[in-house]
Design brief:
about 850 residues, alpha/beta, Rossmann fold, nine-stranded mixed sheet
Length: about 850
């Protein structure tokens, strides 16, 4: 039955005043009456909470108005489903976007409180891992900025991925206690609670008209409870919602068991439910880990879809208008089970026939692919899905039958093509391919860079692209310039404003006006001064956290990202060893002082990635303590990489390492953030590096290595890499130093197998790209020595990064996939 629509005719409170005096008074009020502290004894974390609560009320004014406007106009909403939202700290983001940073600073000054100290206290929300989650966060902020009504849907992880610490150079994973002291930005919505089921059986029910309806009777039940966080657009243009789901048991405690003395058993159901939202990416090397991962994905997908359908019916009353009012974007394959769940909701709950439900489902869903790597294109054992989600497995089989019939009868596919497009992989253990499910159940599929999109058409989805030729398009990623320039680099923001005016803050492509000043010696000096100040800040942080002294006058060479073999941190550290050897062998040369900065987390079960972290730390220990190097080379690995750490590192970087094996990085967004902040890129022609080169000019980047086509050709020939090693004396020496235990005297064989893999197969082309990489690094040295040339190149990188804004990306999604209007401007 349609729910009664909401009518906004109740009295509304007056918006909160934004003056310094009003903020000062309200911060004191919140400190006293919400935090319960006398200002005389309040600690910094008390002031932090009070300040957030005071500003939050100004955010709520915009939040409520945004919601009322969407209900009044009936505008289409976008729903962004993502297993990750790496939003980082929200305080500076919200304060800046709503235009209250300076008034709050002045209000706190009047209370003898330092705003910067408070901002540094706020924990990072542990809701993501890497680029996928940070992209989702940038997209949400841009949707608010260009006034798209939107919800982000994800999981409220109690611990997120993990807090990374180092023990003798090894990664140690500890719980990330970001919610230990509460989260003043979120609102629990107990009324938005949905029952989620698992297991059980499916029962066919004969309807009076002779048709058959299916009823799923799960054997397990739990609740998904919503927690909402406001996401503020630039200048308060709009405030959208990030809705995160927390798993809670329907019966928190089984009293009969408790009273019988089985205290642990009485809480078993509670623990089982809460485990679903405890940790991001539970290790899936075991069947239990795989099951928990699938439970997570279905849990948040089902809750989100139930919420979407409920809201739509409440406002519009019928399901036929879903594609006109609802756009659901699947961020990678993690929420792909949503395709089957939407079909179940439409058919089993609301009584639609298959054809109508399938039409509506394809009308609302679109899917973003982020990888061409087989292990990242999720698949689940058929037996697991049949046991955990029996109704959904029936629906998947039915979808597959429809797709394969179309492929055979309409497109004339042969057996090999049929096997390729099938949702069920029949090779070995039968598995459901979630990428195929997302593809066939969506009206639009997109890649995230021009190169990635073309490779997607030719490789993983080649036959599906033949079957549905108009579905794939490209939407090159972008980053929000608010967080990644205006907020994290205020010195550069002020300098740019002084030189070209403030218009770029509202239209980031106006940064192109800096091109005219790239050769100006005065502007170059000012630009370099800002960079030097940022490097001093990073040097201080390195000293504080690692007790390693680095010079801000050195070239800061940075690689910060998830640790993975295809991202090739190993190539970087091997070249560092070769460089170290060259410095010691030729002390008479005029070497450029260099600091190599690494940061990133390795998945707990990814042994080689964890070994690369240990190798980096072992190499750092030797190089940093060798007097023969004379401080010309330093290597540091900063633990627990997160958004806040990136906000300090990126503005300080001189050189950005974007050196993935060509054809394997879908896009990258770190490359964009670095260039926006005036770092030069050393990289392969991979992902968005290709489009960045077009934007900034090949003369303003350092490109090296095999192309995607050359990588594919070498792999197809199973070429042995040993020849590349034997023909490169510097590489051969570096590999022998590592494998023989020079950097691991406590365990000389520690890296023998890791290095041996480069001789045997070298899947990621580390050995074959080494010489061109080393040559490119020496080109970097040459340009660095000509500081005027370097500064001009750095300015041009900043000047031409405007197109790589997430505002542009989201505007393209809105126009070409979601069919929703956009606009700029705000309060």
């Amino acid at each position: 039955m349609p729910q009664k629509p909401i009518v906004f005719d109740a009295p509304q409170p007056e918006p909160r005043a934004r003056t310094v005096e009003a903020l000062k008074a309200e911060i004191l009020e919140r400190l006293t009456y919400s935090v319960g502290k006398d200002p005389a004894v309040a600690r910094p974390h008390d002031w932090l909470t009070a300040t957030i609560l005071a500003v939050r009320e100004r955010v709520i004014d915009g939040w409520m108005e945004s919601s009322r406007e969407t209900w009044r106009t009936g505008n289409k909403r976008v729903y962004y489903l993502s297993l990750e939202f790496l939003i980082g700290r929200l305080m500076r983001d919200a304060f800046s976007n709503i235009g209250l940073m300076e008034p709050v600073r002045q209000a706190l000054d009047g209370l003898n409180v330092d705003l910067k100290e408070l901002m540094d206290l706020e924990p990072d929300a542990a809701l993501g891992n890497g680029g996928l989650g940070r992209l989702a966060a940038c997209f949400l902020e841009s949707m608010s900025t260009i006034k798209i009504p939107a919800y982000g849907y994800g999981i409220r992880y109690a611990h997120g991925l993990f807090r990374q610490e180092m023990s003798e150079g090894w990664q140690v994973e500890l719980p990330e206690e970001w919610l230990a002291h509460g989260n003043p930005w979120e609102f629990e919505r107990r009324e938005s609670s949905y029952e989620i089921g698992f297991g059980g059986h499916v029962e066919p029910v004969q309807e009076p008209d002779g048709s058959v309806r299916h009823e799923w009777h799960p054997s397990e039940h739990l609740n998904a409870v919503a927690f909402d966080t406001p996401i503020v657009g630039w200048r308060g243009a709009r405030v959208n919602t990030l809705r995160l789901w927390s798993a809670q048991p329907i019966d928190p405690i089984l009293l009969d068991k408790f009273n019988e003395g089985d205290h642990i058993g009485a809480l078993a159901e509670s623990a089982k439910a809460e485990a679903i939202t405890r940790v991001l990416y539970p290790a899936d090397a075991t069947p239990a880990g795989q099951e928990l991962r699938l439970r997570q994905e279905f849990f948040f997908s089902s809750a989100s879809l139930q919420d979407i359908v409920r809201r739509h019916l409440q406002q519009f009353g019928d399901l036929g208008s879903l594609p006109d009012k609802v756009a659901i974007q699947l961020n990678d394959t993690h929420p792909a089970i949503s395709i089957a769940e939407m079909m179940r909701i439409l058919m089993d709950t609301h009584g639609l026939r298959w054809a109508e439900a399938w039409k509506l489902t394809k009308g609302v869903f679109s899917y973003t692919n982020h990888t061409l790597m087989p292990e990242a294109l999720e698949s689940w054992p058929v037996a697991l899905l049949e046991r955990l989600l029996p109704r959904h497995m029936q629906i998947i089989y039915a979808i597959n039958a429809e797709v394969l019939t179309e492929a055979r009868t309409v497109a004339g596919f042969n057996d090999a093509q049929i096997a390729n497009v099938s949702l069920i992989d029949e090779g070995g253990q039968r598995r459901v391919r979630m990428g195929q499910l997302a593809f066939v159940g969506s009206h639009a599929i997109n890649g995230v860079s021009a190169l990635h999109t073309e490779l997607m058409k030719k490789t993983v989805f080649a036959n599906l692209n033949t079957l549905y030729p108009d579905r794939i398009s490209n939407k090159t990623n972008g980053v929000t310039p608010r967080r990644w320039l205006l907020q994290c680099n205020p010195g550069l923001t002020r300098l740019i404003t002084d030189r070209i005016g403030p218009a770029f803050q509202d239209d980031i492509e106006r940064l192109a006006d800096l091109e005219a000043h790239a050769e100006d010696p005065n502007f170059q000096a000012q630009f370099a001064k800002v960079k030097h100040a940022n490097k001093q800040a990073l040097a201080a942080l390195i000293k504080e956290r690692l007790n390693v002294t680095v010079s801000p006058d050195a070239l800061f060479d940075v690689q910060i990202k998830r640790i993975h073999e295809y991202k090739r941190q190993l190539l970087n550290v091997i070249e560092a060893v070769a460089h170290y050897s060259a410095i010691r062998a030729h002390p008479e040369r005029n070497w450029v002082p260099r600091v190599k900065v690494f940061a990133g987390k390795a998945a707990p079960s990814y042994w080689n990635a964890k070994l690369i972290i240990k190798l980096t730390n072992d190499i750092a220990r030797v190089i940093n303590n060798d007097p023969a190097v004379r401080g010309l080379l330093k290597v540091v690995f900063l633990p627990n990489y997160n958004v806040s750490l990136a906000e300090t590192i990126i503005p300080a970087a001189d050189l950005s390492e974007q050196i993935s094996t060509a054809g394997m990085e879908a896009s990258g967004t770190g490359n964009m953030k670095f260039a926006l902040n005036g770092a030069l890129t050393i990289g392969t022609l991979d992902g968005a590096n290709v489009e960045m080169r077009e934007a900034v000019g090949p003369e303003n980047m350092f490109i090296f290595g095999l192309t995607a086509e050359e990588v594919a050709e070498k792999r197809s020939r199973s070429e042995v890499p040993r020849g590349a090693i034997d023909n490169s004396p510097a590489l051969k020496e570096a590999l022998e130093m590592i494998s023989s235990g020079v950097f691991s005297p406590d365990d000389p064989n520690r890296y023998r197998e890791l290095i041996g893999g480069l001789y045997d197969h070298d899947w990621f082309m580390v050995a074959r790209d080494f010489d061109t990489y080393a040559d490119a690094q020496r080109q970097v040295d040459t340009v660095w020595a000509d500081r005027r040339r370097w500064n001009a190149m750095a300015i041009r990188n900043t000047a031409h990064m405007g197109w790589f804004s997430s505002d542009r990306t989201i505007a393209q999604y809105a126009a070409e996939i979601w069919n929703v209007p956009t606009s700029r401007g705000g309060a």
